[in-house]
From TrEMBL:
UniProt-listed Pfam families: Rhodanese
Domain Rhodanese: 67-182
Protein name stated in the entry: Rhodanese-like domain-containing protein
Annotated InterPro entries: PQQ_CXXCW (IPR022376), Rhodanese-like_dom (IPR001763), Rhodanese-like_dom_sf (IPR036873)
Transmembrane residue ranges: none
PROSITE patterns: RHODANESE_3
Domain of life: Bacteria
Length: 194
């Protein structure tokens, strides 16, 4: 009988520890990530805030509702990098799939830009919005992408008044809609390559 009680007590203790660790893990993963005061300077991949002051955070339904207004869709996802072990005698032809009609600015979510990158970024955004700082602009990348958060923040700090951040990004879009292959924005790509 005492062996059975000991086994039951050990099982109960193990269950209690497992429940505690599960609760602690869930609480940790659901912890609110605070918005930085400026642009995020840490790693570009990781848990992001659920808010972006000065912008509207939208899910897929929100983006679908916004589409009839022809927003500027600003994809800031990074370009694929050629793997180091990729054979030198083979042609490297990566593709980038995105929301139809999106302008792709690879790497435009970085906190630090080169000397003229910021100028090119805002000039291209001004061209895409036709000089209308109230035209809806949606920034996106992939889930847990600080780059799209930074791009939205950069636009808010510049005075754009209809900025939307779509944190679900292309992954969320592709759950329901087709994505298309797009090329990098010409002016941005030329400047980013410097």
């Amino acid at each position: 009988m005492s062996g059975l009680i000991g086994t039951l007590l050990r099982a109960a203790a193990s269950l209690a520890i497992a429940l505690f660790l599960t609760a602690a893990s869930t609480q940790w993963s659901l912890a609110e990530v605070r918005e930085p005061n400026g642009l995020w300077t840490g790693p570009m991949r990781g848990q992001t805030p659920t808010t972006l002051r000065g912008a509207v955070v939208i899910d897929l339904a929100g983006l679908e509702a916004l589409m009839p207004k022809n927003p500027v869709l600003l994809d800031v996802g990074p370009a694929d990098k050629k793997p180091e072990e990729f054979p030198k005698d083979r042609l490297w032809l990566p593709t980038h799939r995105s929301i139809p009609g999106a302008a792709w600015f690879p790497g435009a979510g970085a906190a630090a830009f080169g000397p003229t990158q910021e100028e090119v970024f805002f000039r291209r955004v001004e061209e895409l919005t036709q000089g209308d700082s109230s035209k809806p602009i949606v920034t996106f990348c992939r889930p847990e992408c600080w780059g799209s958060w930074n791009a939205g923040k950069r636009l808010v700090m510049k005075g754009y008044t209809s900025v939307y951040w779509f944190p679900g990004g292309i992954d969320s879009w592709q759950e329901v809609h087709d994505a298309v292959e797009i090329k990098p924005d010409g002016d941005w790509h030329s400047e980013a390559a410097k």
